[in-house]
Predict the structure.
Amino acid sequence: MTHPVILITGGSRGIGAATAILAAKRGYDVAFTYQSNATAANEVAEKIRATGRKALMLQADVAVEADVLGVFKQVDAQLGRLDALVNNAGILEKIMRLEQMDAARWQRVLGVNVIGSFLCAKEAVLRMSTRHGGKGGGIVNVSSVAARIGSPNEFVDYAAAKGAVDSMTMGLAKEVATENIRVNAVRPGLIYTEIHASAGEPGRVDRAKEGVPMKRGGTADEIAETILWLLSDQSSYVTGTTIDVAGGR
Ligand code: NAP
């Protein structure tokens, strides 16, 4: 029996890890990337294998084209035809105003969040599109509510990067709509993961949750459920859209 194949970038921690484990439970063989935390990646791979599905963990920086090409080659060789891509790897940096930021930071933030998503989307389309001899598939981009609210006084650069991801979602979905590929995005709100520590505020979700209509932060599992739904046949008429999973924020 063959199993569908999914590739999740940044699958070692947080939302990517929850998505990788849920995908395995739903029957996918799972490839996922990590950047530096091999210990966390190994734990995720073990949890995937415990479900009976294959796990392929690959070290890569998604902002580097050669790394992305290497990842897709490994997936081709070890798991076979790719059915689903989740562009999840993302970074933000220390909370500050725009005029305090510098060009090197913007290269990093746009490099991972935007260029990384574009590089992976390109390789996925080359494999999935009926135009290129593929059989179709699904792409989900992990954006952020930041794209809608702009994240003033925190990280306007990150918000703008996610805005670019939303535009890519809409445009690419239309490009490949007749090629049996659906492209969608989820926009998480305040989710309990380690990303907030990179902003310099590990407790950011609890500090800000009173501003969420539901008065709580979300979990990585709640985002994973939405991602897996967008990749499933249950969402077969959904493309080019973004779903906010943000407690009403
Ligand atoms: P996280 O807990 O910080 O995990 C980030 C993951 O991405 C890790 O697996 C990390 O690998 C990997 N990664 C980081 N830079 C990478 C790179 N250059 N190349 C490849 N992999 C890289 O983050 P998260 O909170 O789960 O966020 C996942 C996605 O959700 C991101 O796109 C983020 O912008 C978005 N999001 C999160 C929230 C939130 O509140 N948490 C809200 C809105 C949107 P290592 O383990 O090796 O470091």
